[in-house]
Amino acid sequence: METINNLKQRFLSAGMLEKLIYINIAVFIIGLLTISFSGLYGTRTSFLTEWFALPSDLDKFITRPWSLVSYGFLHAGFLHILFNCIWLYIFGRLFIEYFTDKQLLNFYLLGTVFGGMAFLIAMNYFPIFSGAKPPIVGASAGISAIIIGTATHIPNYELRIPLINIYIKVWHLALFFILMDLISLSGGNGGGHFSHLGGALFGFLYVKYAGNKELDIFPSFKRTSKKKKTNLKTVHKSNNLTPRGPYRSKSDQQKKIDIILEKIGDSGYDSLTQEEKDFLFEQGKK
Questions:
Q1: Are the beta carbons of 186 and 128 closer than 8 angstroms?
Q2: CB 3.0-4.6 Å disulfide test: which of 30, 75, 128, 155 passes with 171?
Q3: Domain map of the chain by residue range?
């Protein structure tokens, strides 16, 4: 009982990124348990997959409309959830340096929805998918929205890749993911790659054209597009953080701050003049 209470307390005190990872892991474990118990009756199927995976058949989808979101919390195997959680963690941490926890949730959910719609359209339009139409599971569409949204906002940020310890610009990594999806559209998991592209499209369009507007498609998550007042991470090869002051009204001083931040997002902290660095440092102390 104490262990359960500790887990509950840890979940409640966690940030949105950690909660998303915890939920995905919990659902995966529940799915394994249902498969194990159903195997006692000779079926080896999971009711989670049956009722919450996104079916490719439109008639079946009409009876399970919630699956347009729920499929984003299911996974087909250990490696599937492992790599999805790794990329969600890496890009989720970077995302919340510039956006809010609620925006992270909205990107995840709306990316999942856009990915699901792209999957349904592709599976019911292209002749190559006219045969067997398996359902889709996985968080990849929601994660793609976060990755591409981040890359659109700070394309020149240099991200350190663990293990191999190299730095790569975020937009290079995002482009690699997109190209891999494009060249795999007619492969065995073509529907899944359409889903990734659907999530990526949402992430790009929102940040590019609606970044200053309220993201209130879900009424319970209003006012989610406000900038998070956090430290601004630099884009040169270090783990240092450069402080920035809170957002105020668009005074001349604020406009100058915005110009400097935009310059950092485009070209990196090292591109600033000494005067701009001193100005940003002084504002960070206020």
A1: yes
A2: 155
A3: 2-221, 232-284
pLDDT digit string (tens) for the chain, length 286 residues: 677 888 888 888 889 999 999 999 999 999 999 988 887 777 777 889 999 999 999 999 999 999 999 999 999 999 999 999 999 999 999 999 999 999 999 999 999 999 999 999 999 999 988 877 889 999 999 999 999 999 999 999 998 877 778 899 999 999 999 999 999 999 889 999 999 999 999 999 999 887 655 555 445 444 444 444 444 343 433 343 333 333 334 457 777 777 877 777 777 676 778 787 777 777 665 5
Q: Please state which architecture CATH assigns to domain 2-221.
A: Up-down Bundle (1.20)
Give the number of other CB atoms < 10 A from CB of residue 121: 13
Amino acid at 19: K
Number of C-alpha atoms within 13 angstroms, CB side, residue 10? 10
DSSP for the chain, written as a single string = -HHHHHHHHHHHHS-HHHHHHHHHHHHHHHHHHHHHHHHTTT----HHHHHHSB-SSHHHHHT-TTHHHHGGG--SSHHHHHHHHHHHHHHHHHHTTTS-HHHHHHHHHHHHHHHHHHHHHHHHHSGGGSS----B--SHHHHHHHHHHHHHHSTTPEEEETTTTEEEEHHHHHHHHHHHHHTTTTSTTHHHHHHHHHHHHHHHHHHHHSTTS---SSGGG-STTSPP--PEEP-SSS--EE--PPP-S--HHHHHHHHHHHHHHHH-GGGS-HHHHHHHHHHHT-
